[in-house]
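User: Could you check the structure of this?
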Amino acid sequence: MIDLHSHTWFSDGLLSPQALLQRADALGIRQLAITDHDSVAAHRSVAAGDIPAGLRLITGVEISTLWDNREIHIVGLFIDIDHPGLNDLLRRQQAKRRQRAMDIGIKLEKAGITGLEPYLTALPCEAISRNHIADFLIAGGHATGKQQAFSKHLGKRGRFHSSADWCSISDAVTAIRAASGIAVVAHPDRYKLNRVKLRRLLAEFSEAGGDALEVSYSNLHPDKMKNLADLCCDLALWASVGSDFHTPHTTWMDLGRVRKLPAHCEDRALWLHPRWPAPAA
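Assistant: Sure, the predicted structure tokens are below.
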């Protein structure tokens, strides 16, 4: 079994990289990509002895980009985590994350809600996200759950909203390719784009040198998966799969919770990509 999209506590996941690897092994995953948001810290924390026998750990990252005033996520797989250009981009992305958190913190303090900075500092994460700030609001009794935290406080219409000026899709793809990686559009169905805009997004991604899109991922309706498979074939892109795992508590997004690729795009499976590295002997 293969899962090419997962998160650890270095971004907005719950588990340590080591615990994630153990869970993947227990669930029968044989190839796992850790793709934290704008961070490769998880890969630097993993020692050879942490990787269970028979499991292939794939280096990865998920980069936040801005396209048509929307946040679009680009996954990079098999990246060289020490590549200078990629690391420069990730440092800039991290700075933008910290600045957004500071801006939100100022707005919270003006509303009488204090303590965000020490809360975030105490976390093991490198990539501070709005999910962490939502957890802070929930813990303080200012929101009943994630949905309310975003709709009332952190989303585009929320009273504490602050946006980040992410890099472009072209910048992300260029950095991934320079680091010997394969670039993938993450969970395309979640951006709430109509068919025309989604096709334009994928066409521009392809023109920038992008390789693939996620066709099968957790909580995706089979009809929508077929539509993504059609786009994959029409645009000569490769088909990726990934659960987007964050926590064991959301069982519908657990590791490996992805459907088999539709038959008509099986020959576009990402592991057949000419730049997919062969496993080490």
